[in-house]
């Protein structure tokens, strides 16, 4: 019997969640090919990866809408998806919508809270309360859908940076703090990570939010053998940065400044227009260059919400560098990508590769997935091709092992 | 005593030759640092590479001018070099000028012939005659300057494609053909390669011209133990192509079209404005993408001479690709580089690395230098970072070996 | 009773013809607003211009298809038009398709001929024969649809440049030549112009093809009182050129070079990929800059067919100029426009303004329309804003006159 | 005898002041032509405008340096000016330096104050005190140099926005306030304007600072018959905006968003990096688009200081617009201009045209100069070509009058 993999989307009705859901349905029906999926490349084809049709989608949301509505809105505003796909897959979309549960609003930052209009019942009064409610939803889903493996994938809006302290160091003290009423000790993204870990599920963080990125969470994952990975999907401008910066380094061209301006108009943009939320994103986008070059050039990174652009993120980067004999030269690029359509296939790739690792009995942090992330945890490497070589090595090892 | 390396520039007074000469002099005097030299990177510093001051520059030319004049013209038109450097290094430049000899005009293509105004005596009447004259110049230089190693580096204008045939297959038949009067069996770039090989010198081809790229030349090099490598320095737009194409491949994004338009205004531009000369260049620029992607996207490559741009090559590339669910996206970049200032340090790198290999007793084709070339000989790899990894591996091996 | 204006599209099923037809239908139904129509601007609103619903569309074609098919293909490949519009306007599109007649294939250039697959009967054997057949179609349409005014609008593919000679000077000799069998004395675009003029209809040339641009045609138009105007709609890159060149002139900045590269992937692109057809287009695109600046900068203009781009024409222009104290600076722009969607509203504007002039009893060449054309006939002015001021002046005069 | 025009530069040693001084000297010596000067265009040549050699340069500064040092620093960092010009004009530069006086530091904003290191004596303790000191300097200069006309041109760093109130309405109350000790009622830019007006000199404001832009200043100018004009020179990106926005308007293309990012690295950039100073600049850059279009598109304007860029301002603008049938299209441009070299000739033009008006007996606000300004006073028009038509009309009128 085919493997059943539960894919639980945190922020399900957002652009990425919707595109993953539409993508899995259209691929399963053979309406589209697998372009954009790394796991569709030749090197990956012999692996026992789950097929699009092996996934069962569910999730949490704070906005009351549906995959059908989100997809139609997205199609109209950003000019993606064929109208016929949405009607062809109406049934799958409706079924997935029925599996989405209202997420707790406890601890939401102001920019995200403004979007929230769906709550099942009274808001939880502590982090522990919120986590337990999430666990109940996960368990119900897993049981009802008889999933072999449940993967929680965070594709929700970016939270503001959340400072961690001694209180996040060891699990026992941390657990006590979770039970406290009032302002929770971790942001919502971490509720989902902790809920997953407590049940032994897999957690993947596609955003720069805190999620599982603190010691107590790692300790918990270790104790239950959960798989996890993160963070912040590397989709467009940052992908370019981690491809081009190594080129300057390898040619001994000194980057004096790297300016990157990003404009886009989707809902994520509204949230990122809030300076504190934006700062989480800018941090990782900027850091990679310094890490790769080994010195810090002058840099500007902006992300601006521009209504009317829809999901089309346009990034203009201007790189000013010094070559031989002090000669100043410049490279500019303009990247025009549809953000959710770049992110969604990577989300599917991560889920497939996490399931592969699960099948192999893996546990803990998956550092071989660093090529998918702007801020790869457990891997200091940001050079895209060096990261990718690690994934290729992993695949080669698996291949050898399964023979 | 310090090692003395002869660097013989074919096309000495051109932009690249002049910049190499000015660069070696200014670096030797400590007026500038070594930015832009790959061999200045940390990984290379422990190697016994020749220093800038260890090189003695000479060369062949077909235009009657001098390094001093070329450098001043270049400074004025392209806004490079500090005026003070040229006066500070006047002595070195004059000495180098005195070591440049008139090159034979036999077999020059019409576009290049138009530039020629310097011939020592009657033009040679056969390829053999031209080669012998070149050999005499090389020998005189080597003897007078007491060089430990002589490297012939082709930085002359691009020749039209030169078809090779059965006559270029084996050395003995080929040698007979060389002696024939009339239209020579190989273009001028090959005269220099053959002259170098016959004397056991090293030959590096920084241009797309034929040079040493045919079987009889390889056979000759093998018989005399000459080192060689090529061809066509990878300086700007093509470097970008071989960096970006692997990114599209690794993300399974399908490149539908890759359009590249290059404009520049230096003397090389005048020659490349001639369609047959241009076609040599376009061929390698275009081929790398197909090689890396494994399929051929629609493509346009143009190189246009635009007076007033000087040595500043501006390339606009437009890459149109399909992502997940057939979504069409685009990347554009504009590269604004000073061509000779990008090329010259690579020429120096090649010479330093060739000398290192010579010191180690190496012979034949140096495939570990493929990251420097648009059309690397002996290495089918065009992915820049995979090429660079080969060089790093070579360096690591050397390092280990010398301990 | 509402005025009925016949709009006869030469090249009806092409991108522009299809967009005009879809546009008139959707505007008439109130599905879309009139954005993009110059005649929708405030200054034009009080004029007795025909409404979208006052137009009856017909035309000639050489490809056997339909507005419904063309529109659907266009929607799918270029991501324009809402699918719902095409179903809502199915009836209007079908009616318009029924009014399209096969055009004569006599004299078609090879690139266009390759596309031709629809001919009603035997090809005409002389220009006169072709013209008469066209006239018969026009008359039948005018009579059946009871049009008050018939406008022939050339939106067919660009023909190669067609040399004119003494034979095109006076009408009487020219008429004799028309009757000759064999290679016709004028290209097909002129057949339609002549047919229109002989019947006193209006002719507008939206392409760079010859059309009515020779003395004998003007003489004919004068004799029948026909209105006409041309040529070559100014939609994108050239519009930009005629807006920016005056800025450089007014600031006394010396343009050294103006390089323009255009890429696109529609059917027009296939035809323009043929060098002789392309040369017609390049000529007018290039000339405007010299006309405006008063001197000729170095220039490159390319138009390349790139499959997959659909109707999205992307133009990259690089303008290199000298400012104060000889300082070299640069402006680059990238224009990403959907060609047919830029052209179609101008076609509608021209038809509306030609009908206005007809209502006023106007005759002959309409030079007040020069702001719509790359190569405005009868107006040496290419500066866009000076051209536009002429149209504004015309409108102001009309307005004053009708009070 | 030749006319002598005193050109008093506020912020003399800055990039614009230095370039004006170098430019006048090199033009007077015939080392360079007048490219970049509007007043060098054919239409202006018959007018009795002062020649470069008719100007005597002086000014105020707060940094202790010299034209010679500034020019050399500028040459080295931004790659402008020939080294030979500076030695050829050493005498003129030294003479001009000797005519520069330390400006009062009273009221300097923090960003500018950080740069100040030159004060002749104790700082003035009231605006009146500062103004009187400036007047003394102006009078001494005018007397010593026997100037026929003294023009004060503000080319100093941009001040933060300065709110005006009732106190700035009428001259008598305002004069009382000027005498008050402590925080002055106007910023330094206004001290210079008031000093000029009280003596009947001409004042031109090339910056967005307050200067003469309040009612009491206008009343004062009227009472002494002073000429004046402003404000904020329209050099690069804003020039482009006021050229392109009218194009979108005239084609009825709806601009949804206009994003403009500016990066540069000169001293002005350091000051503009201070948010309050920047806001003055952003305000006028943004406003012009709304004024021209008649509606407010979404917009982003940023100005970022990027070390290493020197005076080279690079602006990337992304304009997203809707065309026919709601089709979304885009225009992007990159402007690479050397800011001081764009500004300086306009400063000279303004001085020449102000002197022309002085010769004609003109008084008060010169609205015919609006094409030179981002925020033209007394002229609500921002469309560049409509502004320029006013200047052309003025010139035509003068020409007719002088016949």
Taking pLDDT < 50 over at least 5 consecutive residues as the criterion, the unreliable ranges of chain A are: none
Structural class of chain A: alpha/beta
CATH T-level fold name of the largest domain in chain A: Rossmann fold
Summarize the largest interface: chains and residue counts.
A-B, 50 and 50 residues
Total number of helical segments of chain A? 14
What is the compact description of this entry?
Four copies of one chain form a homotetramer. Chain A is of the alpha/beta class. Chain A is 43% helix and 18% strand.
Notes on the protein architecture:
Four copies of one chain form a homotetramer. The first copy, chain A, is an alpha/beta fold. Chain A has two domains: 5-233 and 341-402, NAD(P)-binding Rossmann-like Domain (Rossmann fold, 3-Layer(aba) Sandwich), CATH 3.40.50; 237-337, Dihydrodipicolinate Reductase, domain 2, CATH 3.30.360.10. Chain A has helices at residues 15-28, 67-78, 83-88, 90-98, 110-113, 127-145, 171-179, 188-198, 215-224, 237-250, 267-272, 275-293, 339-359, 384-402, and strands spanning 5-10, 55-61, 100-102, 149-154, 202-205, 227-230, 254-264, 298-305, 312-322, 328-338, 364-365. In chain A, strands 3-2-1-4-5-6-11 form a seven-stranded parallel sheet, sandwiched between helices. Chain A has a four-stranded mixed sheet with strand order 8-7-9-10. The radius of gyration of chain A is 21 Å and the shape is globular. Chains A and B meet through helix 1, helix 10, strand 10, helix 13 and helix 14 of A and helix 1, helix 10, strand 10, helix 13 and helix 14 of B. Strand 10 of chain A pairs antiparallel with strand 10 of chain B.
